[in-house]
Amino acid sequence: MNTFHQYNETDPLKKVIIGRYQGYRAEEAYVEIVNEEQKKGLPDVQELGPEFESFKHHLEARGVEVLVPQYVGKFVYDQLTPRDIGITIGNKFVMSNMVNQSRRYEAAGIFPMINNMKGEEPAILLPPGNDILLEGGDILVDKGNIFVGISQRTNEAGFDFLEEVFGDRFNLVPVYCRSLDEGKNVLHLDCTFNPVGRQHALIYPDGFREVPGIIKDEYQWIEINAEEQAELATNVISINQDTVISRDHKKCQRVNDEMKKVGIEVIELPFDAAPATGGSFRCCTLPLVRA
Ligand SMILES: NC(=O)NCCC[C@H](N)C(=O)O
């Protein structure tokens, strides 16, 4: 399990980095408010610990190898959402070029783990130039496609870079997310779209400027409403095609029930603190191996 491997969002999760809560907001002087959710207030470390420990326990109980980033230092106040630091695509790993200054050194916390992995050389790719912006929460690899959210955090240059590197092996699909100016708070693509099960996808169609044809054709939709989207109901993590971990939260209940109706086992865990910073289970994980 030492080779980067990810071809589908719902393939069995074998090795994953999850968020680090220890050291969160250790020094207030370095806190940067980076999204709309955080303007409403930030959670306590006391709330984070039990939720992340329980999450880790449930992943390990299902046979997933779980890694936690090293502590970078007090100037990186938030290491809760490793998803955005990079993305495993096929047998390669793409480092992100992140928008927010306070997130840019998060890579240091996962680098020893990434560097320890094998892959198709060059296995670790760095986007060239500062104009290319991309974050892992905007990128979904599934069924031969790479869906790339053009969002608050990823731009068209980020899409072009991925197309150049992977266009010979994958079908690259740009997905234009509605912006704050258009009245929608879609931080990343995974806040509005996420494949689950064999052929289903959780989707908040109003989060898109236009839903790409392939998302209409290839997936059976479980639609999310605005209130559910605000609680990050799409942002579940698949352990495999039959199992997801989702929030035990009243605004996620209907969506969890819909997934159960189509035969997906839903492990519902209390998880309120990380979502108050803008990220739920998908954001709090960075898969290295799904096989
Ligand atoms: N994929 C995601 O939507 N990640 C959530 C990121 C939350 C983090 N605090 C951020 O705003 O960058």
Automatic annotation (TrEMBL):
EC number(s) given by UniProt: 3.5.3.6
GO biological process: L-arginine deiminase pathway
Protein name: arginine deiminase
Pfam families tied to this protein: DDAH_eukar
Pathway stated in the Swiss-Prot or TrEMBL entry: Amino-acid degradation; L-arginine degradation via ADI pathway; carbamoyl phosphate from L-arginine: step 1/2
GO molecular function: arginine deiminase activity
Catalyzed chemical reaction(s): L-arginine + H2O = L-citrulline + NH4(+)
Classification via Gene3D superfamilies: L-arginine/glycine Amidinotransferase, Chain A
Positions of transmembrane segments: none
Lineage top rank: taxon: Bacteria
Enzyme class, UniProt record, top EC level: hydrolase
